[in-house]
Amino acid sequence: MTLTLALNSVINFSVFMNIFMEGGPLFMTLILICLLVSIAFLVIGFFNVKKASEKSFKMLKLTTDSSLLGLVIGFLGSVLGLISAFDSVQALGEPNPSIFAGGLRVSLLTATFGLFTFVVARIGILVLRSVLKHESKIE
To answer: By residue range, what is the domain housing residue 78?
Structure first.
């Protein structure tokens, strides 16, 4: 049972790494950094709710900015991927639909990861905002 779980986790990690590399390591890494920074800002904001609510509001704004940056980087990577796909189609003359579909898939990976980053951060922002409103009503 434990061996099966370990093998499944290794296989799942391998699949995620393949998707990460297919999306383009540069843009996917930048989006991952935005996701991690957003989560770090949220954690700092939650730890400072009772001690320093001003710092929590600052972390809330920084989380919003970093999540939007991840979203925009994702769409920039997607647009550049689409340009690359269209360039390869133009170079081939009569493109094979599978080649074109593969290029579209790769170009949409960065947009999907950017959207994921934005949604995760937005959920954290909503929760932190409600906690801050609740704390301000108590005081």
So the answer is: 2-138
